[in-house]
């Protein structure tokens, strides 16, 4: 196979799934239709890179438009320019003088960058014929560090320090790879605990997940104190005292309200409270973390943390005990590597956010590299798992016995089936047309 040399086209498609019909993914503030802006990069040899960014419905078209606005910076670019200095290319994309005004490095434009960068990683993996985790693991520290833009974080992490961390962490990498290939990586499930599910359904799903081998569970909270008490008592009863339980408020509370709300719930032996308040409130998170520490409850956040700068501050201010990188909220693999390295320096475990569309597919690559080449441990770490929409991917994530298995196909596992794209493209896809005609949905 000849190696591609240039990006010849970028196509973006608005893909949405009607998950709100059954309250999948519902929480104290969201009632989502899981969606993604899906990017296809074409090259001169026909090899394609596919990537996406996750949104939850209306608004997906805005991200698609933003991706279109970056097209001119990607199409016609030589792959040697991109992969020969990926950190520089990433910087160019995120610092484009006219687009930058809309961020910088946050919100819609950063989600758009993530989709493009994710597609570029998928393409790179395919060119090298390796899954992305293996591609990363096969790079030396001197190759990894130039992938990262250190602007705004050099007060906490310099390129030299990053090289040192990566060098140290190479010891034993082959044994860890063997263990990852044999036994994968621990997962927790959120599938049983969506806020819109009935108690009977929650019970049934808890039992089912336990039978499948899950020992860690996450439940949504934050809408009503009485409901939270009832649901947590029920879930604790179903899963028993030995299983790990986390809760997620999806930014529902003010700072003092979060502390007050959480105190009575701590009797259910909770590992963490996730997103207790605004994702931007670094000091608020620190206040909550300090107040709940005596109860053994940590603070987790990150799925809405817009960039490496916010993670830097959360780490500096001890605002989080569990760092939840998101493969699409941050600007793709390059920026995520910076966060993994900072978290390692501050000794905070990374437990990636997943679920949505394709997030599970991606984060196993990232967390595998953390295990192989950065933190070198799975201790106190776990990846979120949600049992939805995997059937739309060409290489869906494999989870068995409550553990993620190592992806083996080349790329970033982000390629979706053409048949699924045709059904769920919004609004023209056949599935959407059916839902409109049956009156189950109205066109947004
Ligand atoms: C709207 C989404 O389903 C969120 O509820 C989800 O990402 C959640 O916060 C999670 O941690 O999985
Ligand atoms: Mg969450």
Give a description of the structure.
This protein has two domains: 7-154, Enolase-like, N-terminal domain (Enolase-like, domain 1); 166-418, TIM Barrel (Alpha-Beta Barrel). The chain contains 17 helices and twelve strands. The protein has helices at residues 60-74, 79-83, 86-94, 107-128, 132-137, 141-144, 159-168, 173-183, 199-212, 225-239, 255-262, 282-292, 308-316, 333-345, 359-374, 418-424, 430-437; strands at 7-16, 35-43, 48-55, 185-189, 216-220, 244-248, 270-274, 298-301, 322-323, 383-385, 399-400, 403-404. It has a five-stranded parallel β-sheet with strand order 5-6-7-8-9, with helices on one face. The termini are far apart. The structure holds 6-deoxy-L-galactonic acid and magnesium ion.
């Amino acid at each position: 196979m000849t190696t591609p040399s240039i990006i010849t086209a970028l196509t973006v498609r608005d893909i949405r799934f009607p998950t709100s019909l059954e309250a999948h993914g519902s929480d104290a503030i969201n009632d989502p239709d899981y969606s993604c802006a899906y990017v296809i990069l074409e090259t001169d040899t026909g090899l394609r890179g596919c990537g996406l960014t996750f949104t939850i419905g209306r608004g997906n078209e805005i991200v698609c438009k933003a991706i279109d606005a970056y097209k001119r910076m990607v199409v016609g670019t030589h792959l040697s320019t991109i992969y020969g200095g990926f950190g520089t290319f990433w910087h160019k994309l995120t610092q484009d003088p006219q687009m930058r005004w809309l961020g910088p490095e946050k919100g819609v434009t950063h989600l758009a960058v993530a989709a493009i960068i994710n597609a570029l990683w998928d393409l790179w993996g395919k060119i090298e014929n390796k899954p992305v985790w293996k591609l990363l693991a096969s790079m030396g520290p001197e190759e990894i560090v130039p992938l990262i833009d250190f602007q705004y974080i050099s007060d906490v992490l310099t390129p030299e320090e990053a090289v040192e961390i990566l060098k140290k962490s190479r010891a034993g990498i082959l044994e860890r790879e063997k263990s990852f290939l044999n036994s994968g990586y621990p997962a927790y499930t959120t599938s049983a605990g969506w806020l819109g599910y009935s108690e009977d359904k929650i019970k049934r799903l808890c039992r089912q997940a336990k039978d499948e081998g899950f020992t860690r569970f996450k439940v949504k909270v934050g809408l009503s104190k009485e409901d939270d008490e009832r649901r947590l008592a029920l879930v604790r009863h179903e899963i028993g005292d030995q299983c790990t339980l986390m809760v997620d408020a999806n930014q529902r509370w003010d700072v003092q309200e979060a502390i007050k709300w959480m105190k009575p719930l701590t009797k259910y032996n909770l590992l963490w409270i996730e997103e207790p308040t605004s994702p931007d409130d670094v000091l608020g998170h620190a206040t909550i973390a300090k107040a709940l520490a005596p109860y053994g409850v940590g603070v987790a956040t990150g799925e809405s943390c817009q960039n490496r700068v916010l993670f830097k501050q959360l780490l500096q201010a001890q605002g989080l005990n569990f760092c939840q990188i998101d493969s699409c909220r941050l600007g793709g693999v390059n920026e995520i590597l910076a966060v993994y390295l900072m978290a390692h320096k501050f000794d905070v475990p990374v437990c990636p956010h997943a679920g949505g569309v394709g997030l599970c597919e991606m984060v196993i690559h990232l967390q595998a590299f953390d295990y192989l080449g950065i933190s070198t441990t799975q201790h106190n770490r776990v990846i979120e798992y949600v049992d939805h929409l995997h059937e739309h991917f060409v290489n869906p994530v494999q989870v068995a016995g409550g553990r993620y298995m190592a992806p083996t196909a080349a790329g970033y596992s982000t390629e979706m089936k053409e048949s699924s794209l045709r059904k769920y493209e919004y609004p023209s896809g056949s599935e959407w047309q059916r839902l409109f005609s049956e009156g189950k949905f109205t066109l947004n």
